[in-house]
Amino acid sequence: MKVTVVGAGNVGATCADVLATREVVNEIVLIDIKEGLAEGKALDIWQKAPINMYDSRTTGSTNDYARTAKSDVVVITSGLPRKPGMSRDDLIVTNAGIVKTVTENVVKHSPNAIIIVVSNPLDVMTYQAHLTSKFPRTRVMGMAGILDTARYRAFLAEALNVSPKDI
User: Fold this and answer.
1) pTM of structure
2) What is the gyration radius of the CA atoms in the chain, in angstroms?
3) Which 3-state string (H, E, C) describes the chain?
4) What is the pLDDT of residues 39-95, one digit of tens each?
5) Which CATH number does the domain housing residue 39 bear?
6) Distances (CA, A) of 28 to 36, 60, 124
7) Closest Cα partner for 74 from 36, 43, 108?
8) Domain of 42?
9) Cis ω on the peptide bond leading into residue 81 (within 30° of 0)?
10) pLDDT of the residue at 129
11) Long-range contacts made by residues 79-82, C-beta under 8 angstroms, separation at least 24?
12) Which of 27, 53, 58, 145 has the most CB atoms within 10 Å of its CB?
């Protein structure tokens, strides 16, 4: 199985790392608009494979969507991060444009893929990907909740002075 992760920031790189280290898939392509970022993160993930004993091949690319061709799943994490004082709604116009462009490339190179959107604000970005792709709704979904749940559990563990595993 081949998975492309679009956006090599903290969320995207972590997603690629988890997919690789848990051997969820055999091939991962990490792509980003920032020159060299995806290549560097992918190289880090791939070069620790002999130490952590996994076989998931991870490569990176700066905006070369041809490298993502025939992906089974595309995870979209790209978009501007929220800055102090901004609401998630403040990101709508900019991130909708980013998600639209990314989705157009997904359709071109991986027309049979399932799209998982993580970009914020999630509901609007997922809808944007669905409209742009014209994929059936069963192939475009948003992923949220687990991050908020994990953060909540970490805060509770800290406040209660217990292990997060116990929450």
Assistant:
1) 0.87
2) 16
3) CEEEEECCCHHHHHHHHHHHHCCCCCEEEEEECCCCHHHHHHHHHHHCHHHHCCCCEEEEEECCHHHHCCCCEEEECCCCCCCCCCCHHHHHHHHHHHHHHHHHHHHHHCCCCEEEECCCCHHHHHHHHHHHHCCCHHHEEECCCHHHHHHHHHHHHHHHCCCHHHC
4) 999 999 999 999 999 999 999 999 999 999 999 999 999 998 888 888 777 889 999
5) 3.40.50.720
6) 16, 8, 26
7) 108
8) 2-166
9) no
10) 99
11) 79/7, 79/119, 79/120, 79/125, 81/9, 82/120
12) 58
Specify the number of domains making up the chain.
Answer: 1
Rounded mean pLDDT, 121-137: 96
